[in-house]
């Protein structure tokens, strides 16, 4: 039997296990997927936990619910990839051989990278919402908080879902307004970027929304440390931002196994061809999702679009044909803006998010870079789509390539 090995059973690994089982002959190919955890988290749902809209049980399911029949699932930590030997070593000392390998080990937050972040105020007045533990601790904190300076800080880029921190402050504005205490909460959005988002037109529109919601943006802030005694953020150029509660989006890196395997860049993201999805070092190693150094968002939508391309290109590699698919950097994200509304962005490597309409047969169109109720429903509906369609590798009526249909250029 030939062997396809998938590292990581999160969004990308699970989708690829489903898609590849559909196209590879069962009597010729064995598919194995490895992950250190049994539980699958619906990460976009973490946003709603601090505000009591979701709880932990709304975002977790066993990973094994989503694998097709005919897959081996190994629960173990991966130690390293030995590309020259076509094998992967597990923490328990076992070696797994492969003919083709997919790396889907995602990214992790590294709060220890910022001095003082994980100090005495951690999970007392300093929280993250990128982990289930952080999001649930913050939910408990907000239950009794009386108000003060709420500071959201992005430590560095890239981060998962670059609009999630914006969604957090938009949602906080609505949450404290609905509780009748918005006048007691001063919300600041502190970012290393020079505006609200990475791309200029979206930055202008989203920056306008921050202003309308009385959320102060502090741009170009490169955090050096958190002073726990004085409760202030300090930047490298000695700017200071005081806080009563700090919500951090810490530095993101690839898993340490990528460093140990010698296939990553300085942040531990796997070096990959951004179009073909083949790793730079090895012709039989491919990468999907947050684990790769793709110059696009680290987002579930990206993983979804990449999965179509990877399925096609992996079959090309297996059958010794030239690649026929190319990933164009397509990314698509709902942005929850509070009060039952949301916005939407859609872009790729070459086209920045533009205003207009996003057509979706049978459901849409959705407004681009515009607050609408429909976008909010899209965001909520997405959880069902994620569990029932996306993870199982079923077809969705959205092209993996970005389309200009509905977008306004002027
Ligand atoms: C707060 C938040 C909000 C978000 N909102 C959105 C959104 O609105 N829209 C959107 O599109 N995306 C959103 N995302 C991003 C999205 O969830 C991720 O981009 C997506 O899940 C990435 O999938 P992946 O397969 O690359 O990685 P993951 O799904 O994270 O999977 C990686 C897997 O690899 C395993 N792994 C890693 N290292 C090892 C090892 N050494 N040994 C064994 N196993 C290992 C992990 O346990 C994990 O299961 C959000 C993320 C967060 C945190």
What can you tell me about this protein's structure?
With 410 residues, the protein is of the alpha/beta class. It is 24% helix and 26% strand. It has seven helices and 24 strands. A five-stranded parallel β-sheet has the order 5-2-1-9-20, with helices on one face. Helix 1 packs parallel to helix 6. The radius of gyration is 21 Å and the shape is globular. The N and C termini lie far apart (56 Å). Flavin-adenine dinucleotide binds at residues 8-13, 34-37, 43-44, 46-47, 77-78, 104-106, 129-130, 160-161, 164, 255, 257, 289-291, 298-301, 303, 333-334.
In short:
It contains seven helices and 24 strands. With 410 residues, it is α/β, with parallel strands linked by helices.
* Distinct small molecules: flavin-adenine dinucleotide
Characterize the main sheet. Answer: 5 strands, parallel
Basic shape: globular
What is the arithmetic mean of pLDDT?
Answer: 96
* Number of DSSP-assigned strands: 24
Question: What is the topological layout?
Answer:
Layout: E1 2-7, H1 11-23, E2 29-35, E3 39-41, E4 60-62, E5 71-75, E6 78-82, E7 87-90, E8 95-97, E9 100-103, E10 107-109, E11 126-128, H2 132-144, E12 148-154, H3 164-178, E13 185-190, H4 200-212, E14 216-218, E15 223-227, E16 232-235, E17 240-242, E18 245-249, E19 252-254, H5 256-261, E20 285-287, H6 300-318, E21 331-338, E22 341-347, E23 356-358, E24 366-368, H7 373-390
Parallel strand pairs: 1-2, 1-9, 2-5, 9-20, 11-18, 12-13, 12-18, 13-14
Antiparallel strand pairs: 3-4, 6-7, 7-8, 10-19, 15-16, 16-17, 21-22, 23-24
The structure holds flavin-adenine dinucleotide.
Residues 8-13, 34-37, 43-44, 46-47, 77-78, 104-106, 129-130, 160-161, 164, 255, 257, 289-291, 298-301, 303, 333-334 line the site of flavin-adenine dinucleotide.
């Amino acid at each position: 039997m030939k062997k396809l090995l998938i590292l990581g059973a999160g969004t990308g690994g699970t989708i690829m296990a489903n898609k590849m089982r559909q196209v590879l002959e069962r009597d010729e190919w064995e598919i194995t997927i490895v992950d250190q955890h049994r539980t699958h988290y619906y990460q976009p749902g973490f946003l709603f936990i601090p505000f009591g809209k979701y709880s932990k049980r709304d975002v977790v399911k066993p990973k094994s619910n989503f694998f097709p029949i005919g897959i081996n699932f190994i629960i173990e930590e991966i130690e390293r990839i030995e590309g020259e030997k076509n094998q992967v070593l597990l923490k328990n000392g076992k070696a797994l051989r492969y003919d083709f390998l997919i790396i889907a080990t995602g990214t992790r937050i590294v709060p220890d990278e910022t001095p003082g972040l994980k100090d005495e105020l951690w999970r007392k007045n300093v929280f993250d919402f990128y982990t289930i533990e952080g999001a649930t601790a913050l939910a408990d904190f907000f239950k009794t908080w009386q108000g003060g300076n709420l500071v959201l800080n992005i430590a560095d880029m890239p981060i998962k879902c670059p609009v999630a921190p914006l969604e957090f402050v938009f949602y906080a504005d609505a949450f404290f307004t609905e509780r009748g205490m918005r006048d007691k909460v001063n919300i600041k959005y502190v970012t290393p970027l020079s505006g609200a988002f990475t791309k200029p037109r979206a930055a202008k529109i989203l920056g306008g929304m921050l202003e309308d919601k009385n959320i102060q943006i502090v741009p170009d802030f490169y955090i050096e440390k958190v002073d726990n005694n004085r409760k202030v953020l300090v930047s490298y150029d000695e700017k200071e931002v005081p806080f009563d509660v700090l919500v951090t989006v810490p530095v993101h890196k690839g898993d340490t196994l990528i460093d140990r395997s010698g296939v990553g860049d300085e942040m531990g993201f796997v070096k990959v061809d951004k179009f073909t999805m083949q790793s730079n070092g090895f012709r039989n190693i491919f990468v999907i999702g947050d684990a790769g150094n793709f110059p696009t968002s680290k987002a579930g939508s990206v993983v979804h679009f990449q999965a179509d391309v990877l399925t096609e290109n992996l079959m090309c590699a297996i059958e010794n044909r030239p690649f026929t698919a190319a990933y164009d950097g397509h990314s698509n994200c709902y942005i929850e803006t509070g009060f039952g509304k949301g916005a939407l962005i859609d872009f790729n490597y070459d086209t920045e998010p533009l205003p207009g309409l996003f057509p979706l047969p049978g459901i849409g169109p959705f407004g681009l870079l515009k607050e609408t109720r429909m976008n909010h429903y899209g965001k909520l509906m997405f959880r069902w789509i994620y569990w029932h369609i996306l993870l199982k590798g079923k077809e969705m009526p959205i092209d993996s390539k970005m389309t200009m249909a509905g977008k306004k250029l002027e």
